[in-house]
Amino acid sequence: MSNPLEHFTTSDGGLFPSVGLGTWKIPDAVLPDLIPAAVDLGYRHFDCACDYGNERAVGEGLKRSLAGGACTRDDLWITSKLWNTYHHPDHVRAACERNLGDLGLDELDLYLIHFPVTLAFVPFEERYPPGWFFDPEAESPAMKPVRVPLADTWGAMEGLVEAGLVKRIGVCNFGTALIRDLQSYARIQPSVLQVEMHPYLTQQKLLRFCQEEKITVTAFSPFGASSYVPLNMAGANESVLDDSEVIAIARDLGKTPGQVVLRWAIQRGTATIPKTQTVAHLRDNIQLFDFDLSDEEMTRLDRLDRNRRFNDPAEFGEAAFNTFYPIFD
Predict the structure, then answer these.
(1) 158 and 191 in contact (C-beta within 8 Å)?
(2) Could you tell me whether strands 192-196 and 77-82 are parallel, antiparallel, or unpaired per DSSP bridges?
(3) How does strand 21-22 pair with strand 45-47?
(4) Residue 52 among the catalytic residues
(5) Residue 123: left if φ>0, alpha if ψ -120 to 50, beta else—which one?
(6) Which terminus in the chain has less CB density within 10 A, N or C?
(7) What does the domain layout of the chain look like in residue ranges?
(8) pTM surpassing 0.90?
(9) Over its length of 329 residues, how does the chain's per-residue pLDDT go in tens digits?
(10) Cβ contacts of residue 218 below 8 Å, gap of 6+?
């Protein structure tokens, strides 16, 4: 009998695996073997994006798993994302078709607007993925913001559902006000919100809002600082996994700090997409269904909240791309 937390049910009845593999920053050379290893361990949810620059390698790994009979396409949940330079409705379908082609798929389970950030179009043949700079070779390279109404982008996203290219659509890095605005005109309501969430950024109000609105939440960067330290976006002393409270709970339960943090994520009702390049961590990260956190342990983890956001375009946009572009303020 399956554990009830192994899947969440989206508003359209989809069974959304609560634990997936996030593929941000995983090198191309690793993925063709890592994806089949993950499938063999029970992973069925894979989170991808144009901007990660590795969807072809993910696609090769998926192809190997499907060809070997380890799973069927219907067993899998594949998410990809619309990049910032493709928000104009003239470009949305072509961008999605490029995601599908690189992944070797006919249809995505979920397609998300990656950021509420609209940048000038960069043709595929000029640069793909286009990244954040409009012209990396410029004397002073920077982002090039343009104004595209969210309603126009969302209408084109709805067209992808109607064309059978994606099963459902959603958003990333949106707050409550922007979601409310989107809901007011959407013919197809957003099915999923993907945002940064971990014990140092619990986002309790946003989570409650989504649960009341029947929007499933995916928590990215569930370990907090670990992915951001190499990018100088976090300090080495900001790791959730090194927090004394997390370590104490893990010791009491005979689990790893990572398992405690991921269990906290799914017990509060969020899907989670930890990233790893090792089979050992793949195994640890999915072994979450043979223990529970008590109400007291959940509260202890909730109280670690520092409102510490690591992935913030207002900060990294200026530091790395010479452009101040706040979206959370």
Answers:
(1) no
(2) unpaired
(3) parallel
(4) yes
(5) beta
(6) N
(7) 4-321
(8) yes
(9) 458 799 999 999 999 999 999 999 999 999 999 999 999 999 999 999 999 999 999 999 999 999 999 999 999 999 999 999 999 999 999 999 999 999 999 999 999 999 999 999 999 999 999 999 999 999 999 999 999 999 999 999 999 999 999 999 999 999 999 999 999 999 999 999 999 999 999 999 999 999 999 999 999 999 998 889 888 889 888 999 999 999 999 999 999 999 999 999 999 999 999 999 999 999 999 999 999 999 999 999 999 999 999 999 999 999 999 999 999 98
(10) 20, 47, 79, 192, 193, 194, 195, 270, 271, 272, 273
Angle at 52 between CA 51 and CA 55, to 5 degrees: 105
Provide the 8-state DSSP code for 19. B
Q: What are phi and psi of 132, to 5 degrees?
A: -100, -35
Residue with tokens 């559902």: 161
Residue identified by tokens 């003239």 is: 90
One-letter amino acid for residue 17 of the chain: P
In this structure, are residues 162 and 96 in contact, taking their beta carbons and an 8 Å threshold?
Answer: no
Amino acid at 243: D
Per the document, the length of the chain is 329
Angstrom distance (rounded) from CA 46 to CA 19: 9
- φ and ψ at residue 108, rounded to 5 degrees: -100, 145
Dihedral sign of CA atoms 183, 186, 191, 196 in order: negative
Q: Which of 52, 86, 200, 228 is catalytic?
A: 52
* CATH class name, domain 4-321: alpha beta
